[in-house]
Amino acid sequence: MIKTKRPANARVGPARFGLAVLCLLALALGMAGLPARAQSPVPPAGGGGSLQVLHWWTSASERQAINVVVNQLAKQDIQWRDVAIPGGAGMGAAKVLKSMVLANRAPEVTQLNGVVFGEWADLGLLLELDNVAVQGNWEKQMFPTVWSLLNNHGHVVAAPLGIHRINSLFYNTAIFKRYNLTPPKTWDDFDQIVKKLQGTGIVPLAQSAEAWQLATLFENLALAESGPAYYRRLFVEMSPAAFLDARMLHILKRLRSLAAAMPQPVRERPWTEVARSMVSGEAAMLIMGDWAKGELNAWGMEVDQQFGCAPAPGTGDFHLYSTDTLAMFAGNYAHQPMQETLARLTMSPAVQSEYNRIKGSIPVLRAADPHMDRCARDSWRAFSKGPAWQAPSLVHRMATDDTTKDAIVAEVQRFFLDRNLSEEQTQKRLAAIARTLARNRND
Ligand code: GAL
Q: Where in the cell is the protein located (predicted)?
């Protein structure tokens, strides 16, 4: 028989730095391993109630995509109650979630991407969805990488929505046509485009100074530099030696030199504004996760008409991925039937197809969706090649815990904004972060 609840003797996982603090607080509040206090009012089993869902899908396409799920849920007589926290990549939402949990007001459902849900599961807070996964044959249906991401010590602890490709380059087709440009396959090709656009008044690369958006460029450069194996040594294994490697020096030099291709000054802007500056013709290219494609579609623009898509330079063979997932807080298990209904819904082929078409991502299902556009097919092909071609996004929490990710992302932004910091100094600082936090993780 499959257990849905966490066994009483379930081990609390390795105390990761930062999470250790959370653990202590959780223990102090009497939450770890124990069912949280009942959420009120307790809804009847099955439909006829509501689920509070914390997430950061606030742009036009994000809302439209999530409405696919909201509507399906409504058909089951379950109301989706929104706790939408704006802020790209969930930087704000992650903080709100922690505060809500510590105040013993955990939402019933949360958008929770990446390795971090293992941390919440280790605290005994997440509902195990093993029954739903077995009934729906999830293991066979979905990509193995997604399946293993959802599993924590042999239990499924989240329901997947889709897979985003972070190494995506979008370009303004009118500008490319006017100046006879082709999508850059390498960073040298990219430099040629920058040269050709000199003196035209067009900014080659749309960019924001928000930390996560600068780090998006950084992780793309890291993947382009030496492929997924080196990328994993950096961001999954957190090898100090990898950060001190000459390749990192090259990545940082490239990152800094790209400033010349960006709008001046590079301001902190939401990703939607940055995407708009590309389609409006102010900028020629944009490197961003493919939710940008979903957003452009929501604004009435189509692939290969107003804009084109290609893999980011130097990463054509690879897939820098991030998956969107929903985790459920167990609480007193009063919401379990509705939470399981939601989990079941996310994996229905119809929801997968429609949601991902609007969102810009691809379904988590191995079987190719015939409705995918050119960019999605390309993403699907690259992802299907398997783990050797895949790189887990640092920025979107696929590679390491939140504390380490936040420390690296902040360091990258500091380096980009402060010209007085040399590449060598930054390398040392990144290696020190890797050394300290990896040590903490293994303690
Ligand atoms: C990612 C998330 C996407 C998209 C993006 C922009 O972390 O996976 O679904 O919302 O942030 O905020």
A: Periplasm
